[in-house]
Amino acid sequence: MSPVLAGVLQLLALVAALALAYRPLGDHMARVYGSKKHLRAEKWIYKAIGADPDAEMRWPAYLRGVLAFSAAGVLFLYLLQRLQGSLPGSLGFKSIDPDQAFNTAASFVANTNWQSYSGEQAMGHVVQTGGLAVQNFVSAAVGIAVAVALVRGFARSRTGELGNFWADLVRGTVRILLPISVLGALVLVACGALQNFSGIHQVGQFLGGSQQWNGGAVASQEVIKELGTNGGGYFNANSAHPFENPTPFSNLFEIFLILLIPFALTRTFGRMVGSLRQGYAILATMATIWLGFTALMMWTEFHHGGPAFDLAGGATEGKENRFGIAGSAIFSVATTLTSTGAVNSFHSSYTGFGGGIQMLGMQLGEIAPGGTGSGLYGMLILAIIAVFIAGLMVGRTPEYLGKKIGTREIKLAACYILVTPALVLGFTAVAMALPTPGDSMTNTGAHGFSEILYAYTSGANNNGSAFAGLNADTQWFNSTIGLAMLLGRFLPMVFVLALAGSLAEQQPVPKTAGTLRTEKPLFTGLLVGTIMIITGLTYFPALALGPLAEGLAS
């Protein structure tokens, strides 16, 4: 069987698995967030934190809950790392330096999981399991909660109430993320992933030196890392490490976990707004972009020119033989079109155009299908922009799901789409202008510029993957990427929740003959075009200096 055919079959199997899970999971999540009942375990949690799960919140109160919980998470994780040297189960590792502890705390709370350290050489069991793994669950639950609040804004009328943040947070963790993670961890253990709390041990002599590995609760952290679109690996090699991702089947299963909730949330959206066809339209937009990017990546990596590539059957540098070019390309697109950031190959080793596809996937806003929650609310914001553009074309007040898109709504949507590009391009420009950050670049020219552009694109878009080659463990990069991650995560949430509150207060307007049918394929095409044009106009100059220049020169 040819490698190309094997890749196509993998992609078809992945699509089939996602299609089978789409309806039951999407309906289950709609029931979870629409239920008035509380499980016994949930009641214990509410009592412990002093929350009233039945109290409705307007958007400022909902936002305060998001920010307060996340701030507490940053502080807790920072202190846990700073005290690691004094904690049991530290495996003898020292406490983490202040700048790196801040970067890591900001990263995991912001659902980014950018890592400027090697996990097996820096973090003990307590920090890995009690700190990082916990944030993998709750940061994903926060993203879903914000998305659900926006959906309620569309579904409700003449009220500013968006639900209860604490109830949404707890339900998302207890009823959705935990059960799937338990089942997924069993699958990964069966595939050969590590799951223990052993210490550091020597595994052999290599080239006159010894190699040491430490154990850990790898499988359980790996599954929520992918399911919650987090991405931080237990080991420095991330999902290329055989302890995290042992076989081609586990590789495909991990891609399935990455895409599972973001795609299924479109059905949840359709259920909650009372129109499944609206959910299918959003799903079609996401799927069109994802399949298009996957096809482009596979074509680029299989058919890039040059004698070395021809002899190897494609661009094999930096890719695991266990997964091959196809398994690496599908994983790469899935992880950069979501906010996952996990890697099973070195993105810096991809062709120039391949690296550009990875960056563009993040720069779209990671919306196809995007992160857990963040992909859905990002796509809905862009749907509002598309409706606004369509309204300008025909001279009609734009409407979406029966809600008028007025001055306030379009200002909030515009602020949302401007925040992340301002962070990415601003920090990249400053880093390239200053003399010190450039010393961290392994390469010069277009590829060196791509290293820094990729780092800030990954941080501000809450992806967390690295281009490799950039030494990000410096005070400059730890601090600025940490700020980019926090601002890139929580500033957009401010605009999303304010928009949700504004929509919830409106009275629905009836459909007329002039109402744009947003459930039709025509709107899906308009939305895809809007996304590509907005991103192209914003990032094309920067991409032209980096991956496009490199690809055209090779």
Automatic annotation (TrEMBL):
<feature type="transmembrane region" description="Helical">
    <location>
        <begin position="176"/>
        <end position="197"/>
    </location>
</feature>
<keyword id="KW-0813">Transport</keyword>
<feature type="transmembrane region" description="Helical">
    <location>
        <begin position="522"/>
        <end position="544"/>
    </location>
</feature>
<keyword id="KW-0406">Ion transport</keyword>
<comment type="similarity">
    <text>Belongs to the KdpA family.</text>
</comment>
<keyword id="KW-0633">Potassium transport</keyword>
<keyword id="KW-1003">Cell membrane</keyword>
<dbReference type="GO" id="GO:0030955">
    <property type="term" value="F:potassium ion binding"/>
</dbReference>
<dbReference type="GO" id="GO:0005886">
    <property type="term" value="C:plasma membrane"/>
</dbReference>
<feature type="transmembrane region" description="Helical">
    <location>
        <begin position="249"/>
        <end position="268"/>
    </location>
</feature>
<feature type="transmembrane region" description="Helical">
    <location>
        <begin position="481"/>
        <end position="501"/>
    </location>
</feature>
<dbReference type="InterPro" id="IPR004623">
    <property type="entry name" value="KdpA"/>
</dbReference>
<keyword id="KW-0630">Potassium</keyword>
<keyword id="KW-0472">Membrane</keyword>
<comment type="function">
    <text>Part of the high-affinity ATP-driven potassium transport (or Kdp) system, which catalyzes the hydrolysis of ATP coupled with the electrogenic transport of potassium into the cytoplasm. This subunit binds the extracellular potassium ions and delivers the ions to the membrane domain of KdpB through an intramembrane tunnel.</text>
</comment>
<protein>
    <recommendedName>
        <fullName>Potassium-transporting ATPase potassium-binding subunit</fullName>
    </recommendedName>
</protein>
<feature type="transmembrane region" description="Helical">
    <location>
        <begin position="137"/>
        <end position="155"/>
    </location>
</feature>
<keyword id="KW-0812">Transmembrane</keyword>
<feature type="transmembrane region" description="Helical">
    <location>
        <begin position="376"/>
        <end position="394"/>
    </location>
</feature>
<feature type="transmembrane region" description="Helical">
    <location>
        <begin position="280"/>
        <end position="299"/>
    </location>
</feature>
<comment type="subunit">
    <text>The system is composed of three essential subunits: KdpA, KdpB and KdpC.</text>
</comment>
<feature type="transmembrane region" description="Helical">
    <location>
        <begin position="61"/>
        <end position="80"/>
    </location>
</feature>
<dbReference type="GO" id="GO:0008556">
    <property type="term" value="F:P-type potassium transmembrane transporter activity"/>
</dbReference>
<keyword id="KW-1133">Transmembrane helix</keyword>
<dbReference type="Pfam" id="PF03814">
    <property type="entry name" value="KdpA"/>
</dbReference>
<feature type="transmembrane region" description="Helical">
    <location>
        <begin position="415"/>
        <end position="434"/>
    </location>
</feature>
